[in-house]
């Protein structure tokens, strides 16, 4: 099969490539990602079993501690470390290695992230921060929890500045050239990370003196709004990372060509510019934001759907062209020519398919009235297990199958490829059950973030129980998927046979038009982003700046 | 940058979906009065008990088949609780939180609102069908969050 064949590296790739020092950095990040996946996955299983009424959680690590840790490990740690490890490898590969200074940035960021995670995880485990990953005040965690968050943010910023320095250096040495496409995605992602995290940083800097008792009260609505300016951006950062692999790596894996360099860059630019005000759709039923602004923000949220429509078209166009290049005839024959037995394709393909219902659900629930039906119900949890749990996670897994052996100088064997396919199928079944059950029961009104309860044997609540059993069934499939994935990662890092694995970078079509120069003007892109943020936030913020403050509460 | 004809059509459909969403959402919000709950009044969360109308929470008949429920949410209960109204009555809920962020959701209806300390949140509903409606807090509010519920009986 294709996987085991030694592929000659192209001229381009020979000159570049990750050196052992860069490889070690990325592999270290991935190690933390998959440890987080393993622990976070088990905590997810425990929650699912509790929620279905099948398992009682101990008082020394109750449902809400489990949930807080599950969220932080998977939403913050798994994703952030994977994104940094992946893009540092991508930059190293496409830009001829990291600058020594940038490698130091990468390690410093790693150290800060680890310190941050230890602070946050310890305070939650000790029962001093059962506040969820959203840490809405006036629930007040111990100051160490918020200080841990500062380490996380600073770590992310340092990683980002490393990327900027490397990209700027490459541009100085390659005057008149476009940044390699994967590095272009990396630039977009880290621009968004830095600018998107400013809001939450301001929030945390208000929470720290409050948690230390230096200030008496906190503005609850302002905190929520600042949090979601980041929270929503983060979601789209994972998505942007996932589609970088769809646009850049998947075409190469299936023996096709890039869709269109120019349109791909336009998609990145649109996602970067339009993203941050999308956070308001988490606050559609909040007080303190006028009906008018909520309506205007429907547009901000929906506008992100536009580049996703572009992506959907691009992906299927790439598939069809690749299939036809392999001799497919007729309307749909190309579909059969796709490498279904190659996990590096199957995993991201299912990720893309999942984004069709996930994206449609997202569009539906951002409309104000429909949002009111599902807000804070299990529907929302089902939605982000479809987007994050399938679209993002399966794409990240798909990247793992080639990136880790590439970095560890090993090979993906046919056996592990087969195991990967089994993993992908188990994962898909698990998420279908779990996310499906969550969507349905959420529509009936079952709330999120709530341990098992019948509300005193209330008939309505009891009628939700059958759905919750399916949630637990899905969770059980998923833990098998988590264990398999971690086994595969360990194999690819340490035990797979030695050899060279390709870093798949799609090549342009022969008759490609040149990419317009303006796609490289990051200064303009950032100004547009700031203008959009200003348009979206200045007026709503003036409405909530002077809300009477709240003293702290510890309700757990 | 050149788009394929099929892609242009596809993206026009995309723009159409966005535009249609905006039109329907806007029409429902502003012409049909179905905008999401957006209480703009503020209140000092430390003085809830001394501030009207929350100094006297309860159910008040304010018109024919029309009621106002002045409600305080706190960890982990609703005041007043076990509300009873006749079939066909319209109920206006005026709510605030005494402590942390809570959610006010009535299963089987479209009532769903965040109730945050510092703001007065408002939402209205006409109960046309008799029955016992489950009221629950849908924002994690602490160790007893799963117990924070009550009922609205419509008969």
From TrEMBL, chain B:
<comment type="function">
    <text>Subunits I and II form the functional core of the enzyme complex. Electrons originating in cytochrome c are transferred via heme a and Cu(A) to the binuclear center formed by heme a3 and Cu(B).</text>
</comment>
<protein>
    <recommendedName>
        <fullName>Cytochrome aa3 subunit 2</fullName>
    </recommendedName>
</protein>
<feature type="transmembrane region" description="Helical">
    <location>
        <begin position="9"/>
        <end position="30"/>
    </location>
</feature>
<dbReference type="GO" id="GO:0016020">
    <property type="term" value="C:membrane"/>
</dbReference>
<dbReference type="Pfam" id="PF00116">
    <property type="entry name" value="COX2"/>
</dbReference>
<dbReference type="InterPro" id="IPR001505">
    <property type="entry name" value="Copper_CuA"/>
</dbReference>
<dbReference type="InterPro" id="IPR051403">
    <property type="entry name" value="NosZ/Cyto_c_oxidase_sub2"/>
</dbReference>
<dbReference type="InterPro" id="IPR008972">
    <property type="entry name" value="Cupredoxin"/>
</dbReference>
<dbReference type="InterPro" id="IPR002429">
    <property type="entry name" value="CcO_II-like_C"/>
</dbReference>
<keyword id="KW-1133">Transmembrane helix</keyword>
<keyword id="KW-0472">Membrane</keyword>
<feature type="domain" description="Cytochrome oxidase subunit II copper A binding">
    <location>
        <begin position="44"/>
        <end position="155"/>
    </location>
</feature>
<keyword id="KW-0186">Copper</keyword>
<dbReference type="GO" id="GO:0030313">
    <property type="term" value="C:cell envelope"/>
</dbReference>
<dbReference type="GO" id="GO:0005507">
    <property type="term" value="F:copper ion binding"/>
</dbReference>
<dbReference type="InterPro" id="IPR034214">
    <property type="entry name" value="Ba3_CcO_II_C"/>
</dbReference>
<dbReference type="GO" id="GO:0004129">
    <property type="term" value="F:cytochrome-c oxidase activity"/>
</dbReference>
<keyword id="KW-0812">Transmembrane</keyword>
<keyword id="KW-0479">Metal-binding</keyword>
